[in-house]
Specification:
The protein is an alpha/beta fold and 562 residues long. It contains 21 helices and 22 strands. The strands form five sheets. Strands 5-7-8-9-10-6 form a six-stranded mixed β-sheet, with helices on both faces. Helix 13 packs antiparallel against helix 14 and helix 14 runs antiparallel to helix 15. The longest helix is centred in the N-terminal third of the chain and has 16 residues. It is elongated and about 115 Å long. The N terminus is likely disordered. It comes from Luteolibacter soli. GO terms for molecular function: inorganic diphosphate phosphatase activity. This is inorganic diphosphatase. Homohexamer.
């Protein structure tokens, strides 16, 4: 039976180390997608929320988007949660009926606390019906619970007290179909050999055979065909400690059903592999391909089974759907983007050339100051208005990325969309800008790592690996006291990630003035086209835009050095 394919999440997500525009444009685009036919679209992020962005979300009354660090399809995403399973104490009959009803040929064997004890295949059940090599005494010996026999046969107990249902015994089956003398002789011989107490005698309406079984001290007597047992024999059985069961089935059926009462623990495969819920499908394909096992339990964080996978589930699994905002490069995207279905890209940066898709996608890339501007225009084109909180978020994205329309990246469309959105959000852009940039100084409070990663992007320019981090402040006075530790951290970042050039830009958004700290290959550092202050520090008056001013300058330094 083919399980239904699960629908994976649809995330609208920005770049690593997201800034306000990345998070706010994701919120806006997800809201638009939900209105226009994608009800499962969720705004997400793949990095920490900057303090200023957190302030925006609080002011807008919008929950922080969930952190999604890896979007690869994992075992936990595609496993079947409605699992057909059995317990190690379940009988053949219980397991067989459950597997037959559900149409599966392999099930996990799970104990009371949810942990997997083994794997049971359909063919394994045959071993319960024909134990050993199928000949001699071994063929008649069955390790089984008398209580489970009684349950399977729906038998009535009228002799000695029954043992607990979970107690299994090694019983020797004896069908009392031979002559009375033969049955008596075999039981007496068993008495001499010391194993008559293991004999389980099966007979119908044969009081003499019943008497021989009880008199010789058999472990149990099963009376078939709905036949009864005289009261005197019942009393004798209690005295001798012989269990008597009475059932309605015929003797031949009972012989088979007794073997069907054996538990699956005897034949389940205890040497099996499991997979963790977070294991990516791409990695599982390789690790599980060589194994003969067909069904794999999927375990949660605490070792509990949350579902199962078969090899066929890994052939063409569903993929996480993504709408990328504020970036179009895999190097800047969430981990696992290569294995996802990219539905849409909305961005205002350069094209990097490494983004690929299986099918045609919606791709919107324009030279404007903010991705939030493009998302806002999509609302306008559909004659829709974002709600007040979403409008405020989109305003924040535009104000942050264009420094409230003063950045050289600002386009006419940014002016138009901010004017429209600010009316919907009920804010004054100039006042909002002042409040927004007044929220906490990262230079004053953040660790070097937090400062470098708050808004950092990675680039590959003709094979040269570069990273540019930017911090926006009201004034540059907090930089000099942190200069030494920031330079040390920048050098470490460059070495650990093999960046040819690592740059930290500290921008005074009030005065439109930046200082640039650089580390990496000395040839590239020395060729940065800014006024050299000392060592690896440069002065860059009028420079505020990473996209339009800083990145082109870095590329110029790389080419000049080359």
């Amino acid at each position: 039976m083919e399980p239904p394919r699960r629908q994976l999440p649809f995330y609208v997500i920005g770049h690593k180390n997201p800034d306000t525009d990345a998070i706010c444009s994701a919120i806006g685009n997800a809201a638009l997608l939900r209105i226009t036919g994608e009800p499962n679209a969720i705004a997400a992020r793949c990095g920490e929320v900057p303090a200023r962005t957190a302030w925006v979300l609080e002011k807008a009354g919008i929950e922080t988007p969930p952190l999604v660090a890896d979007v690869r399809t994992s075992a936990g995403m595609i496993c079947r949660k409605d699992v057909v399973q059995v317990s190690s104490t379940d009988t053949f009959l219980v397991a067989y009926r459950r597997m037959l009803a559900s149409g599966v040929r392999c099930v996990p064997v799970v104990d009371g606390d949810g942990s997997v004890q083994g794997i049971l295949r359909y063919l394994d059940l045959l071993e319960l019906l024909v134990p050993g090599d199928g000949s001699g005494l071994q063929a008649r010996t069955v390790n089984v619970s008398i209580g489970k026999i009684a349950t399977t046969l729906q038998a009535e107990s009228v002799g000695a007290e029954m043992p607990p249902c979970d107690v299994e015994e090694e019983l020797i089956l004896l069908v009392g179909a031979s002559s009375q003398n033969t049955v008596d002789r075999r039981l007496k011989q068993a008495g001499k050999e010391g194993n008559v107490g293991r004999f389980f005698v099966i007979c119908g309406d044969r009081p003499v055979v019943q008497h021989y079984a009880i008199e010789n001290g058999a472990r149990a007597l099963l009376v078939t065909g709905g036949n009864g047992v005289e009261q005197s024999l019942r009393d004798l059985a209690r005295k001798r400690g012989v269990i008597i069961l009475m059932c309605s089935q015929d003797t031949a059926s009972c012989s088979t059903l007794i073997r069907c009462s054996r538990t699956v623990r005897h034949v389940m495969d205890k040497d099996f592999a499991t997979v963790s819920s977070g294991e990516p499908v791409s990695r599982m394909r390789k690790s599980l391909a060589q194994l003969e096992q067909d069904l794999f339990p999927v375990q949660g964080l605490h070792g509990e089974m949350i579902g199962v996978l078969s090899k066929s589930d890994l052939i063409d699994p569903p993929r996480t759907r993504l709408a990328l905002v504020d970036h179009n490069e895999f190097a800047q995207a969430v981990t696992g983007v290569e294995e996802c279905e990219i539905v849409e890209v909305i961005d205002h940066h350069r094209l990097a050339g490494d983004l690929v898709s299986r099918e045609p996608i919606r791709f919107l890339n324009e030279p404007v100051g903010s991705t939030s501007t493009l998302v806002a225009r999509k609302f306008r084109h559909r004659y829709l208005e974002p709600d007040k909180g979403t409008a405020l978020c989109l305003c924040a994205g535009i104000i942050a990325d264009t420094l409230c329309l003063t950045s050289p990246t600002t386009a006419e469309l940014d002016h138009e969309m901010l004017g429209w959105l600010s009316g919907l959000a009920g804010i004054d852009p100039a006042t909002f800008k002042s409040e927004f940039f007044a929220v906490g100084s990262l230079l004053a409070t953040g660790t070097p790592e937090a400062i470098l990663n708050a808004d950092r992007k990675e680039f590959d320019d003709e094979g040269v690996k570069v990273t540019i981090a930017q911090v926006e402040e009201l004034g540059l006075q907090a930089f000099e006291p942190r200069r030494e530790e920031l330079e040390k951290a920048l050098k470490t970042l460059a070495a650990e990630n093999q960046y040819e050039l690592a740059v930290l830009v500290v921008t005074d958004i009030a005065e439109h003035h930046s200082v640039v700290l650089a580390a990496g290959n000395p040839r590239f550092v020395a060729n940065l086209p800014y006024a050299h202050i000392d060592g690896s520090l440069y002065d860059a008056p009028g420079v505020v835009s990473r996209k339009k001013q800083i990145f082109p300058a870095v590329c110029q330094a790389l080419r000049k050095a080359g």
